[in-house]
Amino acid sequence: MSIRERTTKLVARRHDLNYFKRMSPLRAWQWWLAAAALIVAFVWFSGSEFLHGAQALSAGPMSNSHAVFGARCELCHVPVVSATGWTPSFGMRKRVPDSACLQCHAAPAHHPMETTENPTCGSCHTEHIGSMHLAAVADSNCTQCHAQLQSRSGVPRIAASIHSFAGDHPELQPLREASDADRRAATALVFNHAEHMKAGLKGPDGPVTLECATCHTATLNTDGRRGSGFAPVTFERSCRSCHTLQFDAHIQAEAPHGKVEDDAAFVTKSIADFAATHPEVVSAEIRNWPPEAMLPAKAPMPPPHSTQEWIANRIARADIILWRERCGLCHKAADGGVAFDAETMALPVFAPVKQPQQWLTSAVFSHTAHQALACAECHTQALTSASEHDVMMPAIATCRKCHDGRSSPQGPAVTAGHAESGCFLCHIYHGPEQAGLTTKGLSFAQMLRQ
Amino acid sequence: MRIDSTHKPWMIVTLAAIAVGVLVYVPYAIHTPEPGGGTPIGLMFGSIALGLMLFAALLSVRKRFPIWRIGRTKIWMRAHLWLGFLALPMVLFHSAFHARGVLTAVLMWLTIIVVVSGIAGAWLQHTLPTKIYREVPFETIYDQIPVIRRQLAAEAADRAFDVTQRLAPATGPGATVVDTLLGIPTMEAETAEFDKFFADVVKPYLAEEGTRRNELGSREAAHEHFDNFRREFPEAAWEPISAIEEICEEKRQLDHQARLHRLLHGWLLVHLPFSAALILLAIIHAIGALRY
After folding, report:
1. Which of A2, A14, A75 to mutate to test the interface with B (most CBs of B within 10 A)?
2. Which chain A positions have a beta carbon within 8 Å of B141's beta carbon?
3. What is the dihedral of CA A27, A28, A30, A31, to 10 degrees?
4. Which residue segment(s) compose the domain that A92 sits in?
5. Model pTM?
C-alpha cells in the first residue's frame, strides 16, 4: 500500500504546463542530425563533382583499356538532344551510340548478308563493370541469335541451335565435314607419324628420337615473339637431315627440293659436270662396268663405251634413285598411280602437296595459350597414326576436358580447375577489318582530365 | 505502435509485391547478359523504389500537419512501415544486387541502414511501450521527468526532516517538560546517521538522472538500507522513512522510463539523418542516371 497519497489531481499538479512549448532534446537532435546529414551529403557530392568530375555518377569502374579516359564521360556519352547543366529537358538522357565506339574501333558487321538484326555495341560490350576485357562478352550475347539461328537466306549455313560450348556445340568443322575423299586428298604426302615417333631412329649423326617440335615449329610474329600457329613443315627444315636427296654415289650435292623439271636438269648438269672434271673415273667405270649393283625393275642398259653413254647411264640411274626411292618415298602420283615408271623413265607428275595452315576457318586457336600441355595430350593420334589420311585435329570432347563451361568469361574469377569458357575465346564476331588505323585524334588534354 | 492484425493486409500486399518483383526479376536477370539499373526493367524497379522512398519521407510532413484531412496518421504509419520496407527489395532488383559506382555504393549502404534501422525501430515500438507500461507504474510524461525529479527531491527533504521531528519530541518544537522528564530517548546518534545517509546518499541520488552506481539504484539494496533504519527507529518514524523509500522507488522508475524512452526514440537518430541523405542522393542519382 502506498504511503504517499497519489491522486490524479495531485499527479497532474506536478506537471509544468509549458513543456510543450519547448522541443524535446531528443527530437531536436533528430532534426539537427537530419539537417547535418543533408548538408554532408550535398557537400560530399558537390566536392566530388568539383574534384573528380562526374565520376561519382559513374555506374562503375571502367575497363582496363578505357580507364585512361574514364574521367571524360562526354567522349562516349553523347547527348541525345543538347542540354545544358542540370536543367531537365526532354531528351536530356545521354547514351553511348555506336558512332562513339566506331570513332576508335573498326567493327565490321557480322555476316551482313546473313544477319537479320545487328545488336548495338553496348549491348554486348558492357562497360562500367570493372577491369574486364570488353571483348570477353557473355555467351548469352551470342546465343541470343545462335540459340535459334535465323538467316536472311532462309537456311543457316551452320548449326541452328547452339547454347553453349560444353553443351550442344557441334563437332569441330574439319572433323565434322571432312569426307574420306577429303581426307585422302588432304596432304598428298605419304607420312607415318608412328614410324617417325619411334625411339632410336637412324639419324645423320646416329640414333635419334624425334619430338613434335622437331618438325612442327611455332610461327614468329613480326616483333619476334612466338605466334599462335605453326609454320608449315618444310622438307628443308624438317626432312632433309634424315631423308637425303643424294642421287649419285659420285656426287655429294643433293638434288634441290623443288620442281621435277628443275631437279631433272640439276641431275643432268651435275653428272655432266662430274664427267667433265673426273674423266679418269669415267674411263675406269667404262672399263669395269657395272660399277654398282643394278637397280631392281630396270631393264639393264647396254654398257657405255663413251663418256656420253656413261653420262646417260648415270642419269638414268640417278632418275630412278631420285624419283622412285627419294621423292617417291613420300610424294604420290597426281593420277593416283605409280609415282615413277622405270620402264618409260618419264618424269613423274606428283600431286601438289596441300598443307592446311588453318584447319579452323570459323574460329581461332592459339597454341601459345595451350603450350603448357604436351602435344599428345590433345593430338592423341600423333604417336599412333600410321596413315597420312588421319586428321589429327582433337575432337571437341578433348577441348571440353578443360573448357567445360564451369567458368564464365565475365563476373566472378575463373573457377580453379576449369578453363575459361566462352564463345569469344574462339570466335570473332566482327568481320575482316580493313587495313589502316582508326583514330579519334585526341590530344592528351582532351583525353585526360587536365 | 503495435504491429497487430491491422497490419496484415499491408503485409500481404508487401509480400505479394515482392513475389511479383521476383517473378519479373529472375527471368530478366537470367536472360540479360548484364542486368543493371540502366535497362528498362532496371529503370522500372528504380522508379518504384524512389517513389516508395519519397512516399515514406512524406510521413514527416503528414505528422507536421495533423489536422490535414489526408488520411489518418495510423494509416500513414502503416504505409510508411511496409512500403518503406518494400523499397529495399526494389532497390536490390533495380541494381541487380550490385553497386559498382561510388554513388551507387553509398546509396546501397544508406538504403540498407535506413531499412534495417526502420525494422529495428518498428520492433522497439512494438515491444517497448508494453514494457514501459508493465515496469514503470509511476510513468509520467518524459519531458516532465526533470520537473518531477526536483519535486521528489523537495518532498524527500521534507520527509527527512519529518523523521527527525518524530524522533526528537523532547527537544524539537512542541517539546514539553513532561516528555523531557519521561526520558524519551533522543536517538541522537541514529538521527545523525540517518541525516548523513540522507545527505550523502539519498539527496545525490534524487538530484540527478541515472546515478545507477548509487546504492539506491538497486531496489533490494535500498530496501535493506531503509529496513535497517526502520529497525533502529521507533514506529513513529517508520512512515516518513517508508515515504522516502517510495520516493526513491519512483525516482528509480523514472530513470528506467527515461532509459526505455531513449531506446524507444533513439533509433531515429540513425534513421532520420540517413533517410535524409538517402533521399537527397537518390534524387541526384536519378537525375544523373537519366542524364547519362
Report:
1. A14
2. 15, 19
3. 120
4. 71-104+437-450
5. 0.71
